[in-house]
Design goal:
The longest helix has 27 residues, at 172-198. 77% of the residues lie in helices and 0% in strands. The model is unreliable at 1-21 (pLDDT under 50). It contains 21 helices and no strands. It is mainly alpha-helical. It is globular.
Length: 420
Amino acid sequence: MVLFLVLFLGVSIVSGDFYKVPVTVAFLVSSVYAIALSQGNINDRIKRYSEGAGSPIVLLMVWIYILAGAFAASAKAMGAVDATVNLTLQLLPASLLLPGIFLAACFISLAIGTSVGTIVALTPVAVGIAQESEIALPLMVAIVVGGAYFGDNLSFISDTTIAATQSQGCRMGDKFRVNLRLVLPLALLMVAVYYFIGRDIVVPQQMPDVSWWKVLPYLAVIITAVLGLNVMIVLLLGLLLTAVIGTIDGSYDFFGWMGSLGVGINSMGEIIIMAMLAAGMLEMIRSMGGIDYLIDKLTKGINGRRGAETAISSLVCLVDVCTANNTVSIITTGPIAQRIAKQYHIDPRRSASLLDTASCFTQGLIPYSAQLLTAAGLVEATSGHPLNPMLVVPYLYYPMGLGIVILISIIFQPRFLIKK
């Protein structure tokens, strides 16, 4: 993983303009080097790499990317984005746009327990608002992504919550209360920060009349997502509604709708390639013992409770960097974290909270995560302009804040986090 970062930064520095460098180049160079560095004959190395790139988790991401791109483009072609944006701008004062989007992302992610589903539902609307106002597009995307991690970290039905509580042997309700005491002050601070940043936002004074029926595809996506439907079912329902409403409205005919689907799917091509290259490279790191090496190094020399909590948090962060999947990182490190917690008398609720929160902190900041790749793909499908995920990272205030609150809680050990 260090190799990937060095190569990526090297390409960026040589270019002199990092945001114009295709991220796929860094992944390709790193992947080729990882295959060359691994052991075995070349056919076995390529097969191992291909198994990682084509794993069930990656293919599920690909299907979501395809459906998300198709939905975003078809909704844009029928005017759903413009209608939803205009309605939002009419209902919310300009000064409340940024905190409003953040709170919406927090609520949806808390209800559905998935950050990717939240990003799929809200990113196109956020992109439209950014285009109609004077808000920087990377900032708006970062607000949605940050709010999505609030619920991913807290929701009872989040896979990270389930993995963390099961591995540490505590109840989800207990872990929720510990987590809430840790991150709620941060979320409230973010609302204030976004209000301060957005207090001088300028929006058009004269907004066109809203064709309310064109908002229905987005409402359906948000409502069905909150009800807990699978994200692929949610997107298929959204696609069907764009076809029906767009055809009846005269925005396009059937073949025009099919053409918009093709445009949306093609716009996700680079994101799909990045996801597969990253997964293949990370599988090579895992197979060469990179994750086991990190675990072994971090579990040596632990000294005291603070050291144990630092080791648990650092362990899940590093594994997440190597897998780009916070659930997998929790499952991988959970048993080791449980042993460390027992040895140093750390409450299971606390160790579960550390695992979940630290993994969300890391997942929220790595530019090759499914969440940021999905958001970047939806930006291109909605606006027609590509967005390098690296440009979003500096604006991810909420995930950055998660790392800060974890560090503060480890140093000062506040007693209110763990109540009997």
